[in-house]
Design brief:
Length: about 375
């Protein structure tokens, strides 16, 4: 049965508080750790509005894909369509991914490129629909006019603050009575509620979603922050119920590296996936007779795409692995609204108040992070 505070009238001979020999330590078994928040650390600034916004920008893209299924002679054709003709200029050297042939763009008409095949004595190779094209660089003519200016548009991203609160209420008698293992019952209850709220904050930072409509909130709509997992869309890999292994992990890390300048430095996992990562090196160990300790723990994973600290968080879904660039993530309090205790008016023989805080998540450049989901959650 839920209860808003302790009171002496609930005491009795059946309660352990009457025992003569009781240690002055209260053990808390409920999980309340916040490893991801601890890893991210304190934010460098505060949010200044319930709608928190930031600005992101990108460079002009240097890749595209062939959008042409009508090649008559794919190793000779000098015209073909691409998905975004505006990304190309006359004088671009281009190369299909996986091919050694270099082509020179001589004309751009809408999404149709005219090229010189086998440029620079390279060998022409077959072209096909949906192949990725890389723009190596543009060669300008000596003394030519300046080309038309090209630029990207900055975009505004946003998230909303969420209020986390819990009420504390303790009777006057309970405050006056001597407690076992507790110096001040009101202060103890504040600490308990604060632990719960910080735990819930981490859970929402990972999994929280904003309302589908009216996310700003009103008298009947609660304002909620959008967490990391619901914010990710670009680098999301469906494992199709496969077990997590190094191939899956490195493929996801490589995909993020190819699409952004991010350096993934944090892998956040639940208990089962943490054991899967630990198992990467289990079969490679050898021991002699003098070893009396078996160590099966991976705290950091180093690959070609970065050194990642492995963070165990019980709030990550069991079938998921989060790949994060922690330099692009901050959990911000609304100015003056970090967790604090607010006393309420006394309307009787009790002291009451609220532990309250208002926070939001700033996740910059969602394509700099990644998610592997739908992993197996039991051993084969």
């Amino acid at each position: 049965m839920s209860f808003t505070g302790k009171a002496t009238y609930s005491a009795g001979t059946a309660l352990p508080e009457i025992a003569e020999d009781v240690s002055d330590i209260i053990g808390i078994v409920s999980p309340y750790e916040t490893p991801l928040l601890d890893h991210l650390g304190d934010p460098r600034r505060e949010a200044t509005s319930t709608i928190h916004e930031w600005i992101e920008d990108t460079l002009l893209p240097n890749t595209d894909v062939i959008d042409d299924a009508t090649f008559s002679d794919p190793d000779v054709d000098t015209e073909f369509d691409v998905a975004h003709g505006s990304r190309f200029r006359v004088g671009d050297q281009i190369q299909v991914e996986g091919s050694r042939e270099v082509m020179l763009v001589t004309n751009v008409s809408s999404n149709t490129l005219t090229v010189v095949r086998g440029y620079g004595s390279t060998t022409a190779e077959n072209l096909a629909d949906e192949q990725v094209i890389r723009i190596l660089g543009n060669a300008a003519l000596e003394g030519d006019d300046a080309p038309a200016a090209r630029f990207t548009s900055r975009s505004r991203r946003s998230n909303y603050t969420q209020i986390f609160t819990s009420t504390v209420e303790v009777s006057g008698s309970q405050l006056a009575a001597r407690q076992l293992a507790v110096a001040d019952e009101l202060d103890y209850q504040k600490q308990e509620r604060l632990r719960e709220l910080v735990r819930d904050l981490e859970n929402c930072v990972i999994n929280g979603v904003s309302p589908a409509s009216n996310p700003q909130g009103d008298a009947s709509t609660r304002r909620t922050l959008r967490g990391i997992i619901p914010s990710l869309s670009t680098n999301v890999s469906d494992a199709s119920a496969a077990e997590l292994d190094e191939d899956l992990l490195n493929t996801a890390l490589r995909s993020i590296w190819e699409r952004s300048n991010a350096r993934i430095d944090t892998i956040v996992v639940s208990g089962f996936q943490k054991r899967q990562i630990n198992s990467f090196m289990t079969s490679l160990r050898s021991y002699d007779a003098r070893n009396t300790r078996f160590r099966d723990l991976v705290s950091a994973y180093e690959s070609d795409f970065g050194v990642c600290r492995v963070v165990l968080s019980r709030w990550v879904p069991a079938d998921a692995v989060l790949l994060l660039d922690s330099s692009r993530i901050e959990v911000l309090p609304l100015a003056g609204r970090s967790f604090h205790y607010k006393a309420l008016a006394e309307t009787g023989d009790r002291s009451s108040g609220q532990v309250i805080g208002e926070y939001t998540l700033e996740l910059r450049n969602e394509n700099a992070h990644g998610l592997i989901h739908n992993l197996a959650t039991s051993a084969a």
